[in-house]
Amino acid sequence: MIFRAGIDPEIAMIAAYAASLTLIALGVEIYGRLTHRGVRRSRTAGFRFEPQARAWKCSQGGYLWLREIDEKRRLKIYQADAGRCNYCRRKPDCTDSDEGRVLEESAESWTESRMAVFHRVFSLLLLLLAALFLGAGWARQPADGLESWLLAGLAAVVVAAAAPLAADLARGDGSAQGERPPQAAAPPIPAPRRR
Question: What is the extent of the structural domain holding 109?
Fold first, then answer.
């Protein structure tokens, strides 16, 4: 049907391949974001952040208080009271530490993570390959009419897909579409309770 419209089969194949590469690149980006979000959620599974207390609360009612902020690794490290954890009936399923459960919360947004850089570079390489195929199709056989519109339209889609990815990669601060967690002032670190 597409060949009846006067589109050269070679141009149609190039366009289909470029469109496929573009869809794969966007799929890689979406998959990477979803994976990053899932990993972040799995680190805090079974815990709920209590904004009033500025601490994580476990399913047994215990709190994990902010113990340390590691600026180098961009982590907030929370720890539960060892006395409470050691007598908890769920301890074997929660932690093997006798010093209380530790929870690390990353301050990195998706666009700041190393995995995002990998996904972005991979996606951009796929989009570059798509653009090269479109350019080669255009250069090999000067397109006219419907073929010109097809190649130009796909080139516009490739550029539209690549521009925000390249901008976020260059910026690297997570300010565009990142998942930056809310920044709150660090609460005082409470002294451990003695029983």
Answer: 9-171
